[in-house]
Every structure is written in structure tokens, then in C-alpha cells.
TrEMBL record:
<protein>
    <recommendedName>
        <fullName>protein O-GlcNAc transferase</fullName>
        <ecNumber>2.4.1.255</ecNumber>
    </recommendedName>
</protein>
<keyword id="KW-0808">Transferase</keyword>
<dbReference type="InterPro" id="IPR029489">
    <property type="entry name" value="OGT/SEC/SPY_C"/>
</dbReference>
<feature type="domain" description="O-GlcNAc transferase C-terminal">
    <location>
        <begin position="301"/>
        <end position="451"/>
    </location>
</feature>
<comment type="pathway">
    <text>Protein modification; protein glycosylation.</text>
</comment>
<comment type="similarity">
    <text>Belongs to the glycosyltransferase 41 family. O-GlcNAc transferase subfamily.</text>
</comment>
<dbReference type="GO" id="GO:0097363">
    <property type="term" value="F:protein O-acetylglucosaminyltransferase activity"/>
</dbReference>
<dbReference type="InterPro" id="IPR051939">
    <property type="entry name" value="Glycosyltr_41/O-GlcNAc_trsf"/>
</dbReference>
<feature type="domain" description="O-GlcNAc transferase C-terminal">
    <location>
        <begin position="473"/>
        <end position="633"/>
    </location>
</feature>
<feature type="repeat" description="TPR">
    <location>
        <begin position="185"/>
        <end position="218"/>
    </location>
</feature>
<dbReference type="Pfam" id="PF13181">
    <property type="entry name" value="TPR_8"/>
</dbReference>
<keyword id="KW-0328">Glycosyltransferase</keyword>
<feature type="repeat" description="TPR">
    <location>
        <begin position="83"/>
        <end position="116"/>
    </location>
</feature>
<dbReference type="InterPro" id="IPR011990">
    <property type="entry name" value="TPR-like_helical_dom_sf"/>
</dbReference>
<keyword id="KW-0677">Repeat</keyword>
<dbReference type="Pfam" id="PF13844">
    <property type="entry name" value="Glyco_transf_41"/>
</dbReference>
<dbReference type="InterPro" id="IPR019734">
    <property type="entry name" value="TPR_rpt"/>
</dbReference>
Length: 669
């Protein structure tokens, strides 16, 4: 936001000196001091629109949105011809999330002063926040046309270009902003966001560090840095940065999710630390975001058709959808209605199919937590599913309010949400043997025959012959993102490769040479020569699947084991060798292998992992025969398991609903 065009002038009773004194407090972030200064001006000059403007702005940035908006509306009534007042009203409304109302204020300001670039900048940022990237780009380009040398105009244009999918042009615009103002921290932050979206995570992290060098209080940059460090495998750094944000603001929801997601990746964090952190989050969320429970507009009839809602930002071509589609296709539609609350505007083929399977589809990415809570209640949802946990785009702040009588978490995240308002977590006996993890979960664990069913991509290429038969040696592979390649993982792989001197290792999904060099060095410390390694970068899905033709056995990671990658590999004829462990997150791959009938690839100790790798390397014909049969096995299972899973899920939901109906009914309207 730019305020330069309305600072410096006085009104009928407010002097230029008064404005400059207020501006010194405001620009230094001393918002309460600015509020008190402006209150004195309003008291002495109640008919001066400028005094009301200064009070409204200070209140808005101090977090008092309601009073701020009232002050600025008063200012506009006193002087309806001052473009700066309408712009200030737009800024406060934008900060409060009232984007449609802000847009009206910015339009009025531009009708009065269309040549002020700063107002176009503000209008662009509001349009972007309100989900109108095309308008945001149009407004930003008006700003750069008027003032190409205004850093914030180039900054706004870069953000808008990124939002409409023109990321390379966005980098050029953000570079222009930084050439004009090298210390513009928010431009460094935005540049990092663009680079992250392009998969250039190491560069993106450096941009967030630069942003923090120029503005150590820029908490969104630190939150972004935490997420990027986790992607890069620096879980200790991710945890540190997230905790720094929480030291500043214990209610920083995104920082909590980053912290918890990093902890489940972290090999050094024990179960007690991880469990305690999730409980701490739950207490914070329910204290800060939770509202009085109840008030549900539902009828307690055990046998009626239930309205089941699904909240996710991944109802699109995304791994979560591959696990959701088989269930939605098989759900008994006479007994259950599907209500989708989608956190994405994506309109790809998967989103179209999901929309066609749903009874109601609500695009909720622009809704506040309060508004989404109200929508779920209005739509009389009986059972509400969370499909994100602590991953990106989650709406756990809504689930903390408990907008539905029963709430279920499933898919997306390998652990508890930490919310006592979440009633059920769906698992299977491999993931969570009965009684094993009950104390670690805020939710009640409900067992299904298998935790998930997987939808493979259409048009899969045939399974290639086992490469070991032609090469005379085994080729291991990893298709997991580089951030999961922990020191413990590489040490274990090093033991395997040391035991099999002729074996090779293909590591995919390594997006930059720096990461590859780091992996080479860490494996060299385990005695693995670099020439035994091959790396592949970011690939399209068809090329990613085709790469399985080069691999005999995939090696799993720890502590965060494989889920989607193991499923893809099975469909391409490649089993994954996994080390199942004491933590829930270490059992994801074992759950899938057990469902596929492949217990021979599940190890329970480092020694067994190495022994099983050596066994399969010594029996290439047996491995080749398994490879040749896997596609048919997976096809047969895909015809049977989704229906079995869905019937079991329906039973869990109906049983939970019946128990709810039998409970005291004070909480139902």
C-alpha cells in the first residue's frame, strides 16, 4: 500500500506539521501512538476530514477495522471530493478483507484523480486479494504507465503477472521494482514466492532471507522461509524460523502448520515433542479461533440421508484427489450427499469430474474463516471432512469452530490435527495398530480395511521389463521430493549400496544442482561413489512415470515415508522397499504395501531393510516376474478395493451419526 499521495497536506484545522508528526509514528509502525495523536486532532478539529482520515488509517493498521471504517466514512462525508479520503477508505476495507467494498472506494478515488498511480497500485492489490487477477494486472499496468519509476507499481504488476500464470514476466517486473528500490522487502518476498512456484526453492529461500535482512519484522517472509527450508530438507531451520514467528505472534496460524509439518519430517524430533506441539496448537487454535460449539441446523434422525462436506484446497489434479475420486464414485448417493467446499478455482479435468460427482460445489478460497463457518452451517452439513491437516491451504481455523456436528480428518497429512473439535481420524491396522497411537491423536481413530484407495492416471504406458535382467545389476530409485532425503535415509541407502557394489541409484525430483551435490557428498560419506548415482529433475507426469522403466526397486525415505509415489510406482511395476517404524508417519508406505499384498517389501529394522534389498538383488528373475504381474494385480485390486473401502467408510459414518443422534441434543437448533 502507498500512502505518499495523501500525507503532508493539512485541512481546515490540521496543519502540515500535524500530518508529518502523525506520519512519523505511522511509518515507524507506532500505530497506537498515531491513533492517540489523531484522536487529539479529531477532538480539536471535528469538522476536518483530514483528522478523521488520519484516525481511520491508524486504527485500521492497529487492527481496529470497524472503528477505522467508520472514521473514514465520516471523512468522506465531510469532503466527498477528496480522492485521498476515498483511497484511504479503500485501504482500510482491503485490510479488513472487505474487497468488494474496497473496490467501490478505489473506483470513487480514481474517478476523482485518475492520474494518481498510487491509487491504481492499491486497487490492484485489492483486486488480487479479492480473487480478480485480471483486474489486478490491468490496474497495475495503469500504475506503471503513469509512473514507471514507482517501485510499488512494478511490485504490484509483478504480483499480478504471477497470479495470471506469467511467472517469468513477473520476475522481470519484480527485478524492476528492486532496481528502483533495492531495500523493498516485500518485493524480495514476492520474488521468492514466484521462484518457489517455479520449483527454484533454493533461490526462493535466499529471496526470503533478503526480505528479512531489509525488514526483520516481515513475518510472512519468515513463514515462507520456514516452508521452503522444509522443502529443502533443512527441517531444523524450518522449525527454528517457525518458532521465531510464534515468539512474535502465538496465533500465527501458518507458522503453526509449518512448525508441525516440519516436525513430522524431522528425524531428530521424538514422538513426545511432536505430540506435545500438536496439542499446543490445538489449545491455541480453539482458544483463539474457536467459537461456542453447537447451533447446528440439523435433525437428529439416525437413518436419514446425511449431508457430508469435504473441505480441501486440493480438489483438482492433485494427489489428494487421486485418493478421493474412488470413494466419491462408489458412495451410496441415496444415503449420503456430497457437498464440496473447494479452496481452489482450478478447473482442470479432475476438478470437473469431482464437481460432477458432488451434490453441491462451493468455491471458498476467498471466504474468511468466519464466512466459511457460516456457509457450512447454512448448508446444514452433518459430517465435515478435513482433507488437508497442516498442509498448504488448510482451513483448520474453521474446524476449530466446529461448524458441523461431526468432523473427520483424512488424507493430506500424516498425523493428528491437534484439535479436540475433530472427532475422527480414519486409519487402517497397518498405519495404526489398535491402541498403538490413541494417546498421540486428538481424534478417535476409526479403522478401515485399508486407509485409502488410489486412482491411477488414465492411459498408463505398459510396464517396462525389469532393467536388472538386461543390465546384470539392480537399480534402486527414489521418486520422493528432495526434502524427505534425510541423513538417516541416505545412511541407510548407503548401507544397501555398500552391500551391493554393482547396484546403482537413480534419484528423481531433485530440482537444482546444489541439492544434487549435497546428496552426492552425503552418500560419499557413506562410501558411495558419485558415478553410481544418477539424478533427474522436475518432470511432467508422463515423463515421471516413464522413468520407472529405469528402476527395479524404489527405496523409501524416513521418517516421512512414501504415499503417492509408492502408489505410482506400484502401477508402473516397481515395488517400494520401506522401513516401517514407531511413528505414524513412518508407516504410510507399509500401509499401501500391505493393501497390495506385498509384505516382503516391509522391513522393521535397518538390518532387515538391507537384508531384504540384498535378497531381491540376488533373485532378479523373481523380481522380474513380480514386476510383470503387478499391473494386473493393481488393476484387480482397483476393481474391488474402492467399493470395499467405501462401504466400510459408510459404516463408520453411519455409526458415528447414530451415536450423535443418541447423545443429548441441547446443541442443535
Amino acid at each position: 500500500m502507498s500512502i505518499s499521495h495523501f500525507a503532508g497536506a493539512g485541512g481546515m484545522g490540521v496543519s502540515a506539521g500535524d500530518v508529518l508528526a502523525w506520519q512519523a509514528d505511522f511509518e515507524a509502525g507506532r500505530f497506537m501512538s498515531a491513533v492517540e495523536r489523531a484522536r487529539r486532532l479529531v477532538s480539536s478539529c471535528p469538522r476536518d476530514a483530514r483528522a478523521w482520515q488520519l484516525l481511520g488509517l491508524a486504527l485500521g493498521f492497529a487492527g481496529e477495522a470497524g472503528e477505522a471504517e467508520g472514521c473514514l466514512e465520516a471523512a468522506c462525508r465531510l469532503d466527498r471530493s477528496d480522492a485521498a479520503l476515498w483511497d484511504a477508505l479503500g485501504v482500510v476495507r482491503m485490510r479488513a478483507g472487505h474487497h468488494a467494498e474496497a473496490a467501490r472506494a478505489f473506483r470513487r478515488s480514481l474517478q476523482l484523480a485518475a492520474g494518481v498511480a498510487a491509487v491504481w497500485v492499491n486497487a490492484s492489490q485489492n483486486a488480487l486479494a479479492g480473487g480478480e487477477p485480471g483486474d489486478a494486472l490491468r490496474f497495475a499496468e495503469r500504475a506503471t504507465g503513469l509512473a514507471p519509476g514507482l517501485p510499488l507499481a512494478q511490485f504490484a504488476r509483478g504480483n499480478a503477472l504471477h497470479a495470471v500464470g506469467r511467472s517469468e514476466e513477473a520476475l522481470v517486473a519484480l527485478a524492476a521494482a528492486l532496481s528502483l528500490q533495492p531495500g523493498l522487502a516485500i518485493a524480495h518476498q514476492s520474488r521468492g514466492n514466484v521462484l518457489a512456484a517455479l520449483g527454484r526453492h533454493r533461490e526462493a529461500a535466499e529471496c526470503q532471507r533478503q526480505a528479512l535482512q531489509f525488514d526483520p519484522t516481515l513475518q510472512p517472509a519468515r513463514i515462507n522461509l520456514s516452508a521452503l527450508l522444509c522443502v529443502l530438507g533443512d527441517t531444523a531451520g524450518a522449525i527454528r524460523e517457525a518458532r521465531l514467528v510464534l515468539d512474535h505472534d502465538l496465533t500465527a496460524f501458518a507458522a503453526w502448520s509449518n512448525l508441525l509439518y516440519a516436525l513430522v519430517h524431522d528425524e531428530a524430533s521424538g514422538a513426545a515433542v511432536i505430540d506435545a506441539a500438536h496439542r499446543d496448537f490445538g489449545r491455541m487454535a480453539e482458544a483463539c479461533f474457536g467459537l461456542p460449539k453447537g447451533g447446528w441446523r440439523v435433525s437428529r434422525e439416525p437413518g436419514r440421508r446425511l449431508r457430508v462436506g469435504f473441505v480441501s484446497a486440493d480438489l483438482r489434479d492433485h494427489p489428494v484427489a487421486r485418493f478421493l475420486l474412488p470413494v466419491w464414485r462408489h458412495l451410496d448417493r441415496e444415503g449420503f450427499a456430497i457437498l464440496a467446499f473447494s479452496g481452489t478455482a482450478a478447473d482442470d479435468a479432475v476438478a470437473v469430474e469431482l464437481r460432477g460427482l458432488s451434490d453441491e460445489w462451493h468455491e471458498v478460497s476467498r471466504l474468511s474463516d468466519t464466512a466459511l463457518d457460516a456457509l457450512v452451517r447454512e448448508r446444514r452439513v452433518d459430517i465435515l471432512f478435513d482433507l488437508s491437516g497442516h498442509t498448504a491451504g488448510n482451513r483448520l481455523a474453521v474446524f476449530a469452530r466446529k461448524p458441523a456436528p461431526l468432523q473427520v480428518t483424512w488424507l493430506g497429512y500424516p498425523g493428528t490435527t491437534g484439535l479436540s473439535s475433530m472427532d475422527i481420524r480414519l486409519v487402517d491396522a497397518t498405519l495404526a495398530p489398535p491402541g498403538r497411537f490413541d494417546a498421540a491423536f486428538a481424534e478417535r481413530l476409526c479403522h478401515l480395511p485399508q486407509a485409502t484407495a488410489f486412482e491411477p492416471p488414465a492411459g498408463l504406458s505398459p510396464v517396462a521389463p525389469a532393467p536388472c535382467m538386461a543390465r546384470g545389476h539392480i537399480t534402486f530409485g527414489s521418486f520422493n521430493r528432495a526434502g524427505k532425503l534425510t541423513d538417516a535415509t541416505l545412511a541407510l541407502w548407503g548401507q544397501v549400496l555398500s552391500s551391493l557394489p554393482d547396484a546403482r541409484l537413480l534419484i528423481a525430483a531433485v530440482t537444482d544442482e546444489g541439492a544434487a551435490d549435497g546428496i552426492r557428498q552425503r552418500l560419499a560419506a557413506e562410501g558411495v561413489l558419485p558415478e553410481r548415482l544418477r539424478f533427474a529433475g522436475r518432470l511432467s507426469l508422463p515423463d515421471y512415470l516413464a522413468l520407472h522403466a529405469e528402476v527395479d526397486i524404489a527405496l523409501d525415505t524416513q521418517p516421512f515415508s512414501s504415499g503417492t509415489t509408492a502408489n505410482f510406482a506400484l502401477w508402473m511395476g516397481v515395488p517400494t522397499l520401506t522401513l516401517s517404524g514407531e511413528r505414524f508417519v513412518q508407516r504410510l508406505c507399509a500401509s499401501r504395501l500391505a493393501a497390495a499384498g506385498l509384505p516382503g517389501f516391509i522391513a522393521w529394522s535397518d538390518e532387515e531393510f538391507v537384508a531384504r534389498a540384498c535378497h531381491w538383488a540376488a533373485h532378479p528373475a523373481e523380481l522380474a516376474a513380480l514386476r510383470d504381474s503387478l499391473r494386473e494385480r493393481m488393476t484387480v485390486q482397483a476393481e474391488r478395493q474402492p467399493a470395499e473401502l467405501t462401504r466400510a467408510l459408510e459404516g463408520v459414518l453411519r455409526e458415528a451419526w447414530t451415536a450423535f443422534c443418541a447423545a443429548p441434543s441441547e446443541e442443535v437448533e
